[in-house]
């Protein structure tokens, strides 16, 4: 049996294109060929189960062998095998028509996965690293003869009698000079571990030495012996393929450690398992959130039939859950995917929605089952929940029942519970409910205490997402506004019909205003005289709530760059009823008036953390002189 011919692609340009466009991702050749070998093994098992093959199956195995001297890599399996006719059908006729159109369309392509996936070129990825590829195969079919196929990377091939004596296939790659990095045991082991760690058929790569029990010595102590055994690189039945009822908490924790050896234990996890209208399995873990969010992103691994694809799952997993860790496996996502595929595929969109619902259901279950434990985890869970409420309408609808608001006393409330708590004391004269919050409780402590004296409750809003969460709540909650505790003096945070009048005359107010304007040398500060209780601060410096929030969003890339470029502006509220003001009015020494005003303003700036550098030094020196 001998035959020569040309591969049916109608162009001489296909192999140079494969090599050129797939070169940057050339390590995937091993993923493709090993995956094909696994498929062949699984198919013969299915045929045997259906009674269509009655021969001896043997132990399923795929073997990768490296011969550094011959510069070859061989991928072997004991699967279906092929006849010469099947080689012609599946290897020679590349799975597309109109190759000229292909050449033109992808001459500027950059995405290797897009090319391979769209045109079924998995086997041909071998030519990214090999200048000669040989197939030795023997079909499972009764009476089949072994066949050999050889191709040197041109469109010419040769089929002849093969030498294989057992069912299955060997793919032998003669590695080219540009790809000799793959003639390294360490490199191949790294690639196999990356892509094949959880393949469903054992993958052998070389051997390893193991210490096994070998009876006892003369003193009765256990002995061991060194034995060479197959080095199997994968776990064939990973945790996500098993039924949750068969798994313990320790099983989930052990698997997490296998995925992330140096990570802290997760808070909890969600086991995904759905077979309609799409197939999806996996386990998602909620980690303890660290400040460096970027370090924790892209920790979800995407698999297709236990073959690793990527850890960039942005289009499959909702953005707000990108900090989760774990594994997703779906045969409905092809092994070779491109970003454009993920963005357009309907199954991907369904999977995205399913994961959102599954996470919401799990959080609701945790909240309802053990609220105390849920509250203890809230500092970690809260970031996910708030981000989801801001970015996903459907998630907000579910999360509003288990999202928590935490106040400065570390008490937790659902949205409905908090409304009931503060509605009597914090509803303004127009019937609008006002939630007061702090972003930096230590820095804003004086404002918090002033608000507490008025009977107001203050919420903690100090996580990375809270700037957006505050705006989202205002948009969602009916007749509700949120104000930062230092956005105004305590008595002005909530407008009421009760107003404290200033005891100053218009002339006195003008005098005091002039003194303070001269004492403030910073630009962007506007002085106003207000009537407050005598026991409130003599001077309070605040930034308008709306302007401050817009500037914060601009800093976070929230599309408010116009506000971000505007200079800071502050209101300086002078308490006309404070004794300091009376002391300034009674003084006839302009220098003393200026010093008193300057000291009061600096105290206000200091309480906001706005007094630094030389100004802080001057304040300290002035304070020492006043002692």
UniProtKB/TrEMBL annotation:
Region (Disordered): 208-227
Lyase as UniProt keyword: no
InterPro entries on file: HATPase_C_sf, HSP90_C, Hsp90_fam, Hsp90_N, Ribosomal_Su5_D2-typ_SF
NCBIfam families xrefs: PRK05218.1
A Pfam family recorded for this sequence: HATPase_c_3
Name of the protein this chain belongs to: Chaperone protein HtpG
Residues reported in the UniProt entry to bind ATP: 32, 36, 77, 82, 97-98, 169, 339
Keyword terms of this UniProt record: ATP-binding, Chaperone, Cytoplasm, Nucleotide-binding, Stress response
Coiled coil: none
Tagged with keyword Zinc-finger: no
Origin: domain of life: Bacteria
Family membership: Belongs to the heat shock protein 90 family.
GO terms assigned for molecular function: ATP binding; ATP hydrolysis activity; ATP-dependent protein folding chaperone; unfolded protein binding
Cross-referenced PANTHER family: HEAT SHOCK PROTEIN 90 FAMILY MEMBER (PTHR11528)
């Amino acid at each position: 049996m001998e035959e020569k011919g040309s591969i049916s692609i109608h162009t001489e340009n296909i192999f140079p294109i494969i090599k050129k466009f797939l070169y940057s991702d050339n390590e995937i050749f091993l993923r493709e060929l090993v995956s094909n070998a696994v498929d062949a093994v699984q198919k013969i098992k299915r045929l045997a189960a259906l009674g269509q093959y009655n021969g001896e199956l043997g132990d399923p195995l795929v073997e990768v062998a490296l011969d550094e001297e011959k510069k070859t890599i061989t991928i072997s399996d004991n699967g279906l095998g092929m006849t010469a006719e099947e080689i012609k059908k599946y290897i020679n006729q590349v799975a597309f028509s109109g190759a000229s159109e292909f050449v033109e369309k992808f001459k500027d392509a950059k995405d290797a996965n897009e090319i391979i996936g769209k045109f079924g070129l998995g086997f041909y990825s071998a030519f990214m690293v090999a200048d000669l590829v040989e197939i030795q195969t023997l079909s499972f079919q009764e009476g089949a003869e072994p066949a050999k196929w050889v191709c040197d990377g041109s469109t010419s091939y040769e089929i002849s009698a093969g030498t294989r004596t057992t069912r299955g296939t060997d793919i032998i790659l003669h590695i080219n000079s540009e790809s000799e990095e793959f003639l390294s045991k360490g490199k191949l082991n790294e690639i196999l571990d990356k892509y094949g760690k959880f393949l469903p058929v054992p993958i052998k790569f070389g051997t390893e030495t193991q210490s096994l029990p070998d009876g006892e010595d003369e003193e009765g102590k256990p002995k061991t012996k060194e034995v060479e055994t197959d080095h199997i690189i994968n776990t064939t039945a990973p945790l996500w393929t098993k039924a949750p009822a068969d798994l313990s908490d320790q099983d989930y924790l052990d698997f997490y450690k296998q995925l992330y050896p140096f990570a802290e234990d997760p808070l909890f996890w969600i086991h995904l398992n759905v077979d309609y209208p799409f197939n999806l399995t996996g386990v998602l873990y909620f980690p303890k959130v660290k400040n460096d969010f970027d370090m924790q992103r892209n920790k979800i691994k995407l698999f297709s039939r236990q073959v690793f694809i990527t850890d960039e799952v942005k289009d499959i997993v909702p953005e707000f859950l990108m900090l989760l860790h774990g594994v997703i496996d779906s045969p409905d996502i092809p092994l070779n995917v491109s970003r454009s595929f993920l963005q357009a595929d309907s199954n991907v969109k369904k999977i995205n929605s399913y994961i959102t619902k599954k996470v919401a259901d799990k959080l609701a279950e945790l909240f309802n089952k053990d609220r105390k434990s849920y509250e203890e985890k809230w500092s970690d869970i809260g970031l996910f929940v708030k981000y989801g409420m801001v970015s996903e309408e459907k998630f907000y609808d579910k999360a509003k029942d288990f999202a928590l608001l935490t106040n400065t006393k570390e008490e937790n409330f659902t949205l409905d519970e908090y409304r009931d708590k503060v509605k009597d004391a914090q509803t303004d004269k127009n019937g609008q409910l006002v939630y007061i919050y702090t972003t930096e409780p230590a820095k804003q402590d004086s404002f918090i205490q002033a608000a507490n004296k008025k009977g107001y409750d203050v919420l903690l809003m100090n996580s990375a997402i809270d700037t957006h969460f505050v705006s989202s709540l205002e948009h969602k909650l009916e007749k509700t506004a949120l104000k930062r505790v230092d956005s105004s003096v305590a008595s002005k945070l909530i407008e009421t019909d009760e107003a404290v009048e200033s005891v100053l005359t218009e002339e006195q107010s003008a005098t005091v205003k002039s003194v303070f304007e001269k004492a403030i040398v910073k630009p962007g500060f506007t002085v106003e005289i207000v009537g407050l209780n005598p026991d409130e601060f003599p001077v309070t410096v605040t930034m308008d709530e709306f302007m401050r929030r817009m500037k914060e969003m601009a800093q976070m890339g929230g599309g408010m760059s116009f506000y971000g470029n505007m200079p800071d502006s502050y209101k300086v509220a002078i308490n006309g009823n404070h004794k300091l003001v009376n002391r300034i009015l009674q003084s006839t020494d302009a220098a003393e008036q200026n010093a008193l005003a300057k000291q009061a303003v600096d105290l206000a700036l200091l309480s906001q953390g706005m007094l630094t550098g030389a100004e802080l030094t001057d304040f300290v020196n002035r304070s020492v002189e006043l002692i």
